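Changelog note: in this version the structure field was regenerated for every chain. One regenerated record is shown below for reference.
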Amino acid sequence: LPGRDTAVRYDELISCPEEEILEALVLGTRDYVRKNGFSKVVIALSGGIDSAITTVIAALAIGKESVTAVLMPSGFSSKGSIDDSTSLADNLGIKYITIPIAGIYGTYLKDLKSIFKSDEINVTKENIQARIRGSIIMALSNENGWLVLSTGNKSE
């Protein structure tokens, strides 16, 4: 740009450190939960980065006693993902529930076998697991009056 020092560092132009971003997310989450009349939230905790960050933000925003994490492992869940989820919940001091979905998933596949083109695991069958998890998390939300904090990202 004419008349500008082009040696200015990027971080000097964009002043938005991670701590400020975290504070904004915590404040926004707290405000959203309260303004919508909820005092507790439920999160599907998978062991991935999306659900881990959402869980940390929720615990900071409304307190660990107001957050319930739900682990819903399937036959495709790694031990590492399950261990990461339980470790995070323990470290944050939040309650967690484990609801395995392998049986439900197996029933879906069995009942839909006649309309599927093959037995091969593909995107359709992978997405069934997400739908099962979504149904379970919504059932818990409705039953207990908890707000669901979704952990989906742009690629989902």
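Spot check on this record: The CA atoms of residues 78 and 133 lie 16 Å apart. The chain has one domain: 39-148.
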